[in-house]
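User: I'm curious whether this sequence folds into something compact or stays loose and floppy. Could you predict its structure so I can see for myself?
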Amino acid sequence: EIYARIFRELRPRTPLPEIRVEFRRYASANAQIRLSDGVLLVRIADTLQEAPETVHEALAEILLSKLFRRPVPRHANDRYRRYLNRRDIRDNLDQVRQARGRKRMQHPTGTHYNLEEMFEELNAKYFWGLMARPRIGWSPHASRTMLGHYDSSHNAIVLSRILDRAITPRVCVEYVMYHEMLHLRHPAEHRGVRRCVHTKEFKAAEKQFDRLAEAKALLKKL
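Assistant: Here's the prediction. I'll summarize afterward.
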């Protein structure tokens, strides 16, 4: 009923298609929509099944707006993001990711750099050796757009395999590792609809990295 009503609001002259809404066991709060052969198929993570009706209305506005290439209404986006940013919902999603998700990563010992040894060196230098070591590894693929990331659900730091090359200066790999260690030290903050990943504390700590400007300049060249 929700999708039928919003469909009519967005496309009043278009015949209403058959609408199917399915809840799937996704590892996160994912949702997909597709219109094909007169059938509007909506697939939503079962973690959202018990969400309030207003949240499902907001999600429907978001999905249908994207389907018809229209701007997503700000009120819908804000309502949906506020719901996902609730602490109880975030905690539940983390548990689901841990139970259902699988973290794809390769051994930390690469061809040129050993990430576990690098972590311990940086830990001793910048964190007095007090940071507990998470899972660490190289990414399965050599990504150029994401050089590293920290996954809090799986407590894992993953660096892009593209850095594990002879032409990559060690200071570049150290900086990317240090940056991800800061995500472990300074978790993201949630403020209403906003998710602040790089907090003031994070940015201040990042400036403590030796040869910061040099590392960033070298990464740009690479």
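Summary: The beta strands are 18-24, 31-36, 39-45, 135-138, 148-151, 156-159, 189-191, 194-196. The chain has a mean pLDDT of 92.
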